[in-house]
Design goal:
The structure holds two protein chains of two kinds. Chain A contains eleven helices and 26 strands. Chain A is an alpha/beta fold. Chain A is globular, with a radius of gyration of 23 Å. Chain B is an alpha+beta fold. Helices cover 18% and strands 24% of the residues of chain B. A five-stranded mixed sheet of chain B has the order 2-1-5-3-4. Chain B is globular, with a radius of gyration of 12 Å. The termini of chain B are far apart. The relative contact order of chain B is 0.30. Classes of the chains: A alpha/beta, B alpha+beta. Chains A and B meet through helix 4, helix 9, strand 22 and helix 10 of A and helix 1 and helix 3 of B. Bound molecules: flavin-adenine dinucleotide and FE2/S2 (inorganic) cluster (FES). FE2/S2 (inorganic) cluster binds next to loops of chain B.
């Protein structure tokens, strides 16, 4: 049997973002004495992704990336970072990974934290469009900022009204652009929230002079070199000198799949983030994992999941069995609105709206029967915090009290 | 410029100098253990919880309303608790001592 504490053992990590980086540091905390080598194709010192579409984008050049950890911290914990280095293959039988230059690296334990990449839909003309970018990496934001510097970014079209599209819309609006959001569904955020929330954000963007257009399926993009004409299925056209594509992600699982690792809507892992190979773990956006709280498999795109799974994998690698049972949480900032979400609403049969007395301060409580599933809180940290507590303790909620904003949130559980 | 001292869980004392930005960023940049800053400093995760030394509390100031609510998700909260991403570095807090919560 492998001794995880032996100093000559190697734990290799593919992907140095929220999941990989947190796993590396957690390994040290759990007592891993061997080598830790972490690879990423991205040349930047690993950074926080959420600000990319929020503060970092709207700050123009003024703000730097927010590093996940400092260079000094990697040195201090003896974590080797190989940035700008992609891994091309995994050989589970030989227990080695192959770098893009053909070199190989042996491992005792391997962590796959390859995350996801943006989907570029197959729209005719999309390859030849002028200044068209997705938004997932620092390089993408730099391209967007360069385009703006070169005079583009006056007429912006954002394809996709999900969180990233809407946050990007708000950030580019702050920089003075005319912004249109084209959403294929009948409402924005259709995949992730109840219609009331979609309406709220639709109105928020409209009030801030962002044009939100729904039922807009983009069918072609034509570029004349400086400008694009974006055409929708209903025949409408929009001019854009900058196009941002935010239509979702595709998990980076091809390399794992080739290595014989089981895939099911993501890399299939057990409750300790282990794949079907006992020495290979997978964490973060790329995984399809079991959530004990909701008693089903899920794939999540969030910092919380990346960080929590990273810690679980690190513990398991060091021989401590820790099961993943976190309640997911997420946030989004648009204009001056702060949305905080806890839990998973999927499968709900009732949504209760609780409006507080202050403007733009409310929360949505999703139920299935009497069971609380999740809470979306708008400018309402209190609802977020109490929602988290009620979910954790699974206390039954008195729905009538919940609806009544004169009843303190503390007092809404059934007595 | 402000000197800020962090006391981590293992009792280690580290004094850092900062000029701007948040105390959380300064701590993360310098690898102060126990300050994770998972949300990047937007008061959403409560993983940057510190206890301010009693005598420094007045200079650092109290938690804002949102911050105070978010602190309810942290463990070991006292009247000296703050989320360090919400403390801006300025000369006014030169010399403060913060104990990293766990
Ligand atoms: C603009 C934006 C805003 C967001 N906002 C929020 C938010 O507000 N709240 C929230 O909770 N989440 C947010 N997210 C989601 C969050 O950033 C992700 O859930 C998180 O980054 C997942 O971390 P990860 O490490 O699993 O994957 P990723 O961050 O995708 O990282 C995977 C890494 O693996 C590397 N990689 C992949 N394949 C290879 C290979 N073969 N060899 C070497 N390296 C490889 C990639 O270069 C990448 O750096 C946002 C994401 C984006 C893009
Ligand atoms: S860094 Fe997340 S609350 Fe301070």
């Amino acid at each position: 049997m492998d001794d995880p504490m032996k100093s000559q053992e190697v734990c290799a990590i593919i992907g140095a973002s929220h999941a990989g980086v947190n796993c590396a540091f957690a390994l040290r905390k759990e007592g891993w004495k061997g080598k830790i080598i972490m690879y990423d194709g991205d040349p930047e010192l690993p950074y926080h992704r959420p600000p990319l579409s929020k503060a970092y984008l709207s700050a123009g050049d003024i703000m730097g990336l927010t590093p996940l950890k400092s260079e000094a911290a990697y040195l201090k914990e003896d974590i080797v970072l190989r940035l700008g280095t992609r891994i091309n293959a995994i050989h589970p039988k030989r227990k080695e990974i192959i770098l893009e230059n053909g070199d190989s690296q042996a491992y005792h334990k391997l962590v796959i934290a390859t995350g996801a990449r943006p989907i570029i839909p197959r729209i005719p003309g999309i390859e030849t469009a002028t200044h068209l970018y997705p938004l997932r990496t620092a390089a993408h934001v730099n391209c967007i900022q360069e385009a703006i510097k070169s005079g583009a970014g006056k007429e912006v079209v954002i394809i996709g009204g999900g969180y990233i599209g809407l946050e990007t819309a708000a950030s580019l609006k702050k920089l003075g652009a005319n912004v249109k959001v084209l959403e294929r569904e009948e409402r924005i955020l259709a995949r992730v929230t109840a219609p009331v929330m979609s309406d709220f954000f639709h109105q928020l963007h409209t009030e801030n002079d962002v044009e939100v257009l729904t039922g807009k399926n983009v069918v072609s993009i034509e570029s004349n070199g400086n400008q694009n004409t974006v055409t929708c299925e209903d025949g409408s056209h929009y001019i854009a000198d900058l196009i941002i594509v935010g239509v979702g992600i595709k998990v980076n699982v091809e390399m794992a799949e080739k290595a014989g690792i089981k895939i099911k809507n993501g890399i299939l892992v057990d409750n300790s983030a282990r794949t079907n190979d006992k020495d290979i773990y997978a964490i973060g956006d790329c995984t399809y994992h079991f959530n004990t709280y909701y008693d089903r498999f899920v794939r999540l795109e969030s910092v919380q999941n990346a960080v929590d799974q990273a810690k679980i994998a690190a513990a398991a690698i060091c021989g401590k069995e820790a099961g993943y049972n976190a309640i997911p949480w997420f946030w989004s900032d648009q204009f001056d609105v702060k949305l905080q979400m806890v839990g998973l609403s999927e499968g709900y049969d009732e949504v209760i709206i609780r409006k507080e007395n202050t403007d733009n301060c409310f929360s949505l409580w999703y139920f299935i029967g009497d069971d609380l599933l999740s809470v979306d809180a708008v400018n309402n940290a209190k609802a977020y915090v109490w929602g988290t507590k009620f979910l954790k303790s699974r206390v039954p909620i008195d729905k009538e009290k919940l609806k009544d904003s004169t009843v303190d949130l503390k007092a809404i559980p059934k007595v | 410029m402000a000197k800020i001292t962090f006391i981590t869980n293992d009792g280690e004392k580290t004094t850092l100098e900062g000029t701007s930005g948040s105390v959380m960023s300064l701590a993360v940049e310098n690898g102060i253990s126990g300050i994770d800053g998972d949300c990047g400093g937007v008061c959403s995760c409560a993983t940057c919880h510190v206890h301010v030394a009693e005598e420094d509390m007045e200079r650092v100031g109290e938690a804002s309303e949102i911050e105070a609510v978010m602190l309810e998700l942290a463990d070991d909260v006292t009247e000296f608790s703050r989320l360090s991403c919400q403390i801006e570095i300025s000369e006014g807090i030169d010399g403060i001592v913060l104990t990293v919560a766990e």
